[in-house]
Amino acid sequence: MPSVSNRLRITRPDDWHLHLRDGDALAHTVAWSAAQFARAVVMPNLKPAVVDTEQALQYRQRVLAARPRGSDFQPLMTLYLTDRTPASEISRARASGAVFGVKLYPAGATTNSDSGVTDLRHVRPVLEAMQREDMPLLVHGEVTDPEVDVFDREAVFIDRVLQPLRRDFPALRIVLEHITTADAVDYVLSCPQRSARGTPLLGATITAHHLLYSRNAMFRGGLRPHYYCLPVLKRERHRARLLQAACSADGRFFLGTDSAPHARAAKESDCGCAGCLTALHALELYASAFEQAGCLHCLEGFASHFGADFYGLPRNQGHVELLRQPWVVPARLEYPDGGIVPLDAGASLAWRVDPGAGLSQQA
Ligand code: NCD
Ligand code: ZN
């Protein structure tokens, strides 16, 4: 039964998968996320990519400098794994205290992934070091084989890459990022292994757009570039299974927006970029999805508890409040290179984060 309450107060949430970009974009992207989240795992797919600890620390400083006045938003940095990453980088990353994961992009899988890994055999020493140091591997789980249908790339990745990887590195902590299929949900559920600390070894983030939309959204009355992301939206049965997983209060599934901003012209183009902008209204979108499933009471665990538990970080102290207060998502927002279009631009959303309430640890 849908909740009839008009207010929802939850522990301040975190975003466990976010693209903030760099340069002039940071003033916008950091403000959007800081208005909703206490912490975010920041993806390293800049151009050039963030491949070592030194670069991650410098990028972190640029993010911190872009925070709105008074914000205590914390960026949790990641490194971009390449064929040439030295194993010694992992202890440097760990010692920095600022790097929380290493991102695996199969070369060519998505935006700015050309310097990604071409074959996991090249990075075995790095994976061994990560397993030893308990540094999580964050995985873009799609094969890049052009013979494989784009809608099957996640399921094939699980069979061809993830299963052997977990067999070879059984104690490596892995997050399967932005899962999009029932196959991925089933795979995560089939792996109950826990670390010595008792936390799951395999987890998965789920985006708001994959909870709200099936692939039909990309073709509603015409081609809708703002619903195009990678991994691409899938069939309705997959969306339903993801929503069920997100609402299951299983600590292995947690929030990762994969908000991936691209200027309007880069999306509305003859070769449009993949990525949906959801950071602006992430919690509102997730609340819509959870309410649809009659599970608003499960939002807090998914958004505010399970990710922190997985990463072995403390849960946040403060709270945010969502109000049932319909509002219309802006058609366009200010952004470098001519503005940007958020997901669901022009649509009405039922929930709104109370901007006045509690965006600090003290609240
Ligand atoms: C991301 C981007 O634009 O950086 N795009 C996307 O569609 N999600 C890259 C990614 O996470 O795959
Ligand atoms: Zn991403």
**Which blocks of ≥5 consecutive residues have pLDDT under 50?**
none
Strand content: 15-25%
Fill in the CATH topology: TIM Barrel
CATH class: Alpha Beta
Span from first to last CA? 31 Å
The tally of helices reads 11
Radius of gyration: 19 Å
**Overall 3D geometry?**
globular
Number of domains: 1
Q: Helicity level, as a percent range?
A: 25-40%
Biggest β-sheet description? 8 strands, parallel
Name the helix and strand elements from N-terminus to C-terminus, one letter apiece.
EEHEHEHEHEHEHEHHEHHHEE
List all distinct small molecules, including ions and cofactors, that are bound in this structure. N-carbamoyl-L-aspartate, zinc ion
- With strands numbered from the N-terminus, the spatial order across the biggest sheet is 2-3-4-5-6-7-8-9
How is this structure best described in words?
- The chain has 363 residues and is α/β, with parallel strands linked by helices.
- It has eleven helices and eleven strands.
- The chain has helices spanning 26-34, 53-65, 88-96, 124-133, 153-168, 182-189, 208-212, 236-246, 264-267, 282-292, 299-311; strands at 7-11, 15-18, 39-42, 74-80, 99-104, 137-139, 174-176, 202-206, 253-255, 319-328, 348-353.
- Helix 3 (88-96) runs parallel beside helix 4.
- Zinc ion is lined by residues 17, 19, 43, 258, 260.
